[in-house]
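Q: what does this look like with coenzyme A bound?
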Amino acid sequence: MPLAPKRMRDSQTVISHLMQLTDANPVGNVHGGVIMRLVDEVAGIAAARHVGRPVVTVAIDSMSFYSPIYVGNLVTVKASLNYVGRTSMEVGVRVEAEDVLTGQITHTNSAYLVYVALDENGQPVEVPPLIAETPEEERWMMEGKRRQEERLRRRRADEAQRES
Ligand SMILES: CC(C)(COP(=O)(O)OP(=O)(O)OC[C@H]1O[C@@H](n2cnc3c(N)ncnc32)[C@H](O)[C@@H]1OP(=O)(O)O)[C@@H](O)C(=O)NCCC(=O)NCCS
């Protein structure tokens, strides 16, 4: 039986986390790896919410940090599914850091991650179709499809190079 489609907003996930001294790098700013972990965690929750099954990360697109995040900042990570294939899901993530004393919010980075849903035997399993409800969501979906096609082209090229 075909899986019931789900809306983007049904799985959108937002998590806020106060940066602590233990999150700092030797320079005193927040360690990039702390943010990467949070990004993977929140995006993974959105993907798992969509499919209602365990998911694993299969790809993370490049991540740039536009400005530093400081200890004491409240970091908010927002994740939304952009596109789904047969067993894979692309999730877009936006990271913002808030100086809670001034209320100033800075967009520090964005990222795209791809997850695969797994069945009871750890094998890729079909995911529900994704519904875009607004022109903006339709654009996200189109762009996500284009990015996924590009990833798969790169994967095929990598595989061909490994085999040569
Ligand atoms: C995820 C995993 C089960 C997929 O296995 P696989 O043999 O590549 O399976 P498939 O080729 O059927 O790919 C499954 C889906 O992933 C997608 N995919 C595979 N490699 C990809 C890549 N590099 N980028 C984007 N999507 C990719 C495929 O297109 C497919 O999606 P679709 O069904 O929507 O078209 C396997 O690669 C794996 O276990 N990876 C490790 C995952 C993990 O442990 N992550 C945490 C890292 S610490």
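The longest helix spans residues 135-163. The chain has a mean pLDDT of 97.
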